[in-house]
Amino acid sequence: MSTAKRHFFWLAPVLSMLISLPSAHASIKQTKGDFEDKFRQLDEVLPTPNVYRNAAGEPGHQYWQQQVDYDIDVKLLEGERRIEAKETITYHNNSPDTLKYLWIQLDQNKFRDDSMSALTTTFGGIGNRGPATEAASGSKPAKLSMGALRRQQFVEDNELGYTISRVEDKSGNDLRHTTVGTLMRVDLATPLKPGKKVTFDIDFAFNIVEEDAVSARAGYEHFPDDEREGGNDIFLLAQWFPRLAAYTDYEAWTNKEFIGRGEFTLEFGNYEVDITVPADHIVSSTGELQNPKDVLTKTQRDRLKKAEKADRIVFVVTPEEAIENEKEGTSKLKTWTFKAENVRDFAWASSRKFAWDARGYQQGGDTQPLVMAMSFYPKEGGELWQKYSTESIIHTMDVYSRFSFDYPYPVAQSVNGPVGGMEYPMITFNGPRTELQDDGSRTYSLAEKRFLIGVVIHEVGHIYFPMTVNSDERQWTWMDEGLNSFLDGVAGREWDPTIPWGVEPRDITGYMKSQTQVPIMTQSDSVLRLGPNAYTKPAAALNILRETILGRELFDFAFKEYAQRWMFKRPTPSDFFRTMEEASGVDLDWFWRGWFYSTDHVDISLDSVYKLRLNTEDPDIDFGRERQTEMEKPQSLTVIRNKEEGKELWVDRFDDISDFYDENDRYTVTNKERNSYQKFLKGLEPWERTAFERAVREDKNYYVLNFSNHGGLVMPIILELAYEDGSTEEMRIPAEIWRRTPKAVSKLIVTEKDKELVSVTVDPHWETADVNVENNHYPRRIIPSRIEAYKGKSRNSYEYRDLMQDSKTELKTDDEDDENDEGNDDE
Question: Which domains, from first to last, does the chain contain?
Answer without folding.
Answer: 278-469 (no CATH), 600-614+700-784 (2.60.40), 619-698 (no CATH)
